[in-house]
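Revision sheet: structure tokens.
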Amino acid sequence: MKTIKTFVAVAALSVLSFGAFAQSVSATASTLDNAEAKIAAQAAKEGASYKITSAQFNNRVHMTAELTK
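Predicted:
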């Protein structure tokens, strides 16, 4: 029983700690490469990695990503 409680506590803290470091960012540029470079620069500034979650092109590129540490 103690093992189950410990496992549940560790799992809950892991989820909380992951959520605390997730941040959504966006960038606008004229090309996909330029927009991704802006996202990469924001991630480097925060010391985080990034995952692109969406990109739209309507005369300009609008890209969003999630930063995680």
